[in-house]
Amino acid sequence: MPKGVPNKRYTPEFKKLVVETMMKEKISYRETARQFEISNHHRVQDWERIYLTEGPEGFAIERRGCGNHGCH
């Protein structure tokens, strides 16, 4: 098994917690990623962008593949 979990699934609640903690404590993406053991701080940056543009409910939208939402 490779070390680390590059495609680990993060719940919408977790993403919201990460972004809100970062904003509240005014810490960097890198520091936030380290604190929450997220492999890539760019992921935190993406989450913040979603949070600011779509709100916390933006995390509930599945962005990869068609999922159960259909592609039509």
Strand content: under 5%
- Proportion in helices: 40-55%
Low-confidence stretches: 66-72
Q: What Rg, in angstroms, do the CA atoms define?
A: 13 Å
Helix/strand order, N-terminal first: HHH
Name the structural class: mainly alpha
**C-alpha end-to-end distance:** 37 Å
The total beta strand count reads: 0
Q: What's the pLDDT, averaged over the residues? A: 84
* Backbone shape: globular
Q: What can be said about the biggest beta sheet?
A: none
Helix tally equals 3
InterPro entries: InsJ-like_HTH
Pfam family, one: HTH_28
Protein name: Helix-turn-helix domain containing protein
Organism: Butyricicoccus intestinisimiae
Topology:
Layout (H helix, E strand, L loop, with lengths): L11 H14 L3 H8 L4 H14 L18
Helix pairs in contact: 1-2, 1-3, 2-3
Can you describe what's shown?
It is a single chain. By secondary structure, this protein is mainly α. The chain has a domain at 12-58. The protein is 50% helix and 0% strand. It is built from 3 helices and no strands. It has helices at residues 12-25, 29-36, 41-54. Helix 1 crosses helix 2. The radius of gyration is 13 Å and the shape is globular. Residues 66-72 have low confidence and may be disordered.
Give a short synopsis of this structure.
This is Helix-turn-helix domain containing protein. It is built from three helices and no strands.
Descriptors:
72 residues, mainly alpha, disordered C terminus, InsJ-like_HTH, Helix-turn-helix domain containing protein
